[in-house]
Amino acid sequence: MKNKKKRHCQRIHFKIRMQERFGLTINRNDLRKIKWMIQDNQTRIVEKQSNRATRHELEWEGHLIHVIYDKQRGELVTALLPEWSDVGSNRIQTDQEVPQEP
Q1: Are the beta carbons of 56 and 70 closer than 8 angstroms?
Q2: pLDDT tens digits, residue range 32-90?
Q3: Whole-angstrom distance, CA of residue 82 vs CA of residue 58
Q4: Which residues have C-beta within 8 Å of that of residue 85, sequence separation ≥ 6?
Q5: Is residue 95 within 8 Å of 80, Cβ to Cβ?
Q6: How many Cα atoms occupy the beta-carbon half-sphere of 77 within 13 Å?
Q7: Is the pTM of this model over 0.90?
Q8: Which of 6, 47, 50, 68 has CA atoms 20 to 30 A from the CA of 86?
Q9: 4 vs 20: CA distance, rounded Å
């Protein structure tokens, strides 16, 4: 059996996460539409995670979704809940972001 390419594995991972986290079944046309939205700047860039991956925020079928897009491969990698935006981030908090004690 031939090994699957990374692009194909990313696509499968994205579809599984959309089903698990949002209860949405994504087909080939949906994948194309979401990728087109990202490529046409119809999403909000939340953060650049690396030279190849960016986190985008978009609305899909009534759900606010954060999507990781691999621009090197032109593929959707995973779907995240918006409240997870700081989880795993290496971002340093500024003084304005540090909660003040009463």
Answers
A1: no
A2: 999 999 999 999 999 999 999 999 999 999 999 999 999 999 999 999 999 887 644 54
A3: 10
A4: 46, 47, 55, 66
A5: no
A6: 16
A7: no
A8: 6
A9: 22
